Amino acid sequence: MFAEADFPWWIAGGYAIELAVGRELRPHGDLDVLVLRRAQALVRDLLNDWDMHVADPPGTGHLRPWRPGETLEVPLHDIWCRRTREAPWSVQLMLDEAEGAHWVSRRNPGVRLPLGRVGRRSPTGIPYLAPEVQLFYKTKATRAKDETDFEAVLPLLDESQRAWLADSIAVTAPDHPWRKRLLSADRT
Asked: What pLDDT sits at residue 59?
């Protein structure tokens, strides 16, 4: 459904990790897609016939309709989508920030990356979130499935990816156990 989109987008979540490692790791409940906040009107137009709800306020479990033409401002960033009102939720859209040619973490604006490094492409051309960026998101509330993802992708991260992730975790969760693993992986 995003194949014809004329704005940057990336598969996110567990599927992004699977695209990075090239194999299935676990079952998934939905498809996560990350887009830049500045493209939200384009996304809303692209999915105009979908039933779309925004988590408002974020993290409370409360969803309200995202009306056509409505601009979602910070801190709103999480949109649940389904083809019809009767269908199950199938896509979770996440809006993220950018300043010029840089992605900016909504958790801490000190965590940044050039937009050209935010994503990768699978061998079949599917854009997905770079594994180090996806793992950064998973540090907020790490679950068993996130540990599975970390273990699978860690051996594939090069030195610059590990360093960026370790530095970014230091800003938002300095005591996270992945940081120590990333730093020790740099010395091996």
From this structure: 87
